[in-house]
């Protein structure tokens, strides 16, 4: 990274430190100059009114041929990991499938490694490919984080907030991101439905910025977090297919119903199973799914009822759907918002985490 002396004097105190900490381990080349030195303004990103940064779109990666790697090739590799399909990865990157295949082979040639196991279709990644993927995620996160930090120095929040959420909880993500979108209109959002363990792992690998999960296994040495409330539950059903008297149902009566449940292994499911077992009950669900959408479809068709979280947005008036309370019904572990402690940590993550603290003040 090259910093012009005049630009150095005009930069915010924390900006240069951030750029240096992020760029040093990645090989991304950057030049910081006074704004008067920009020959083509489209090539530069303002840091403030006086200083600008230009970040090359190439990474200097050692290889037998001394090649220079295009960062887009890493984006193509990540897209293939996410879709597990050459055609879908190409469509996501807005290129043709032959172009994607050619660029990935170029990457393999530059690294002198086979990264992808190919047959008539995508079969997976080699062991070397998995190791390169880990570095690719780190490099792309640093690249995106640098531009987000530059925008933050200008008082803007620009980029993509990557959030992981447990599939069933009392947290309504839409109301949260709507508030962020109103305050920061250039901010985009990616939501992933994951288990608590997957969220913690993805935060640690810098694949997520924030996570909403249960806090019983979150290590405070590595993560910042705060509680956003307990998850209360009730029985969700379609009034065209089921009718119940009163405002509350016993767990014994609920166990006799055709139930749809989130798949085994999720923290929410473990808590529901424990609520039944503590009363000597062992209901056998008629449907299990890792998709909340599929459960809602089954409820809407009258195939089953389901024990769902309250205060999640599902209790809002939806035609034919209704909740009935269950006694002493809550998930045991508190729900919380989690962010990694260690650098690099994006300006987007820090700002959105701080905004959430204002929405969920600590309880006395």
Automatic annotation (TrEMBL):
One of its GO terms (molecular function) is DNA binding. Residues 69-126 form the HTH lysR-type domain. InterPro entries: LysR_HTH_N, LysR_subst-bd, WH-like_DNA-bd_sf, WH_DNA-bd_sf. Keywords: Activator, DNA-binding, Transcription, Transcription regulation. It holds the Pfam family HTH_1. One of its GO terms (biological process) is regulation of DNA-templated transcription initiation. Belongs to the LysR transcriptional regulatory family. This is HTH-type transcriptional regulator HdfR. It comes from Pseudomonas fluorescens. The gene is hdfR_2.
